[in-house]
Amino acid sequence: MNIFRLAGDMTHLASVLVLLLKIHTIKSCAGISLKTQELYAIVFASRYLDIFTDFISLYNTLMKLIFLGSSFSIVWYMRSHNVVRRSYDKAQDTFRHYFILLPCLLLALFIHEKFTFKEVMWTFSLYLEAVAILPQLVLLQRTRNIDNLTGQYVFLLGAYRGLYILNWVYRYLTEPHYVHWIPWISGIVQTLLYADFFYYYFDSWKNNKKLQLPA
């Protein structure tokens, strides 16, 4: 554990809390992609298969439970809650997310650190997380006008991954033989996908105007 990883975890947790605040308090999921939330639920379900078998620390287990529980809760809200689901813009959220599941799984089967079920599924979760934000970014580009909570949610998600990259750099410089190419490359790809959003997010903040993405 170091300050960059802790900051990354807290930023990730903050993104989930912002989204739950929007859904639970305002009873709205406008501007939120159900496709991205389903992909994140699959990411956490495939990554945390060891939650009840490999105990690392209370902190580690608690964070796993939080991300598993919150991701499936968000999907349930958007699919089943009578009020929330009416605010879901299904007509705009049309990214065919199932088309990226198979490529990520095949990539994990061929490029992994160890050929075991848990390791392949963990690697699959890394590849899938790298691209899971795509349906959300496409939805924001289509709707263009982005409310504050949705903008903060996406910004915090991108910031979390950026902080994790700093965590990897720190560990590489301070820990001998710390080399993990698969998480590094996946994390860099994921962060690059946010670059355009970050530009317009900071531009709107600097000029005190409503966040909009170009069509």
UniProtKB/TrEMBL annotation:
It is found in: Endoplasmic reticulum membrane. Coiled coil: none annotated. One of its GO terms (molecular function) is ER retention sequence binding. Residues 1-31 form the signal peptide. It is a multi-pass membrane protein. GO terms for biological process: protein retention in ER lumen; protein transport; vesicle-mediated transport. InterPro entries: ER_ret_rcpt. One of its GO terms (cellular component) is cis-Golgi network. Keywords: Endoplasmic reticulum, ER-Golgi transport, Membrane, Protein transport, Receptor, Signal, Transmembrane, Transmembrane helix, Transport. The chain crosses the membrane at residues 55-77, 98-115, 121-140, 152-170, 182-202. It comes from the Eukaryota. Its main location: endoplasmic reticulum. Belongs to the ERD2 family. This is ER lumen protein-retaining receptor. The gene is LOC107955250.
